[in-house]
Design brief:
The chain is of the alpha/beta class. Helix content is 35%, strand content 23%. A hairpin with a 2-residue loop joins strand 4 and strand 5. The longest helix is centred in the C-terminal third of the chain and has 18 residues. The chain is globular.
Length: 266
């Protein structure tokens, strides 16, 4: 499980630039929950993911992953519980290293280091099989430098690396936003396949309302550092974009005004 209890975060407190980023977030994820998160700029979406990952310390509240209180653990100690894919395809991989070397680094993450160097024949065969799932032809390019890949190929590889050791929670921070529509759909399809196959608890931030409704079993909408809409199951499946906007307005007391999201409804 993932439990977030009354987490609050204010940046630059007591100054003219004070910003309440999270204003009492409470969230519980069960095994296999795939939650999509939507909201306008400054709603607190990425801050929530950063709090879970330990990028910033919380002001108050707690974060528990599978019964382990990680609230005070630094980012590097939480890494063994988490997989994360960022918006920028250039983040999350080493451009000057080969595809198989990047996969080997991901596979060894959080494990005891040995004096053995290189990649064993068995490992290479495993990587080829994993890459076939992506259906991008990368299984025949194991020794290619990652920097030579397209944005979509690199993001798909990053997704594979982030889930190689089956993290307790997978965090996806608008991981298709920098891709063209066709490539974004491909990466999102791969995401759904990997999440379902491994039954991963997943939180995916998106600016696309249609994707937020279609993907996953639960949707939350954030506003001013709070969760104002939380729908799941059959209610989510039947949801329309107009109904989602009405729910937002009823819960937040204001109209949804994010141009980035409103222009990404297909």
């Amino acid at each position: 499980m993932l439990d977030i209890f009354d987490v609050r975060k204010t940046f630059n407190p007591g100054t003219i630039n004070e910003k309440k980023a999270l204003n009492g977030i409470n969230l519980h994820l069960d095994e296999g929950d795939f939650v999509t998160v939507i909201g306008g700029n400054g709603a607190g979406k990425s801050t929530m993911l950063n709090m879970i990952a330990g990028v910033y310390p919380v002001d108050c509240g707690s974060i528990v992953i599978d019964g382990i209180d990680v609230t005070k653990l630094p980012e590097y100690k939480r890494a063994k519980y988490l997989g994360r894919v960022f918006q920028d395809p250039m983040t999350g991989t080493a451009a000057d290293m080969q595809i198989e070397e990047n996969l080997a680094l991901a596979a060894r993450r959080g494990k005891r280091r040995t004096l053995r160097s290189g990649i064993a024949k068995k490992e290479r065969a495993e990587y080829k099989e994993l890459l076939k799932v992506l259906d991008l032809g990368l299984e025949d390019r194991l020794t290619a430098k990652v920097g030579l890949l397209s944005g979509g190929q690199r993001q798909a590889l990053t997704l594979l690396m982030a889930t190689l050791n089956k993290p307790k929670v997978l965090l996806l921070d608008e991981h298709t936003a920098a891709l063209d529509p066709k490539t974004a759909k491909k990466v999102l399809d791969i995401t759904e396949e990997i999440v379902e196959k491994n039954n991963l608890k997943t939180i995916m931030i998106t600016h696309n309302m249609a994707d937020a409704i279609r993907v996953g079993n639960r949707l939350i909408m954030m506003h001013e550092g709070r969760i104002v809409v939380d729908v799941k199951g059959e209610e989510k499946k039947k949801l329309t974009i107009d109904q989602l906007l009405q729910m937002f307005e009823a819960s937040s007391g204001s109209q949804f005004t994010s141009d980035k999201v409103m222009l990404s409804t297909n």
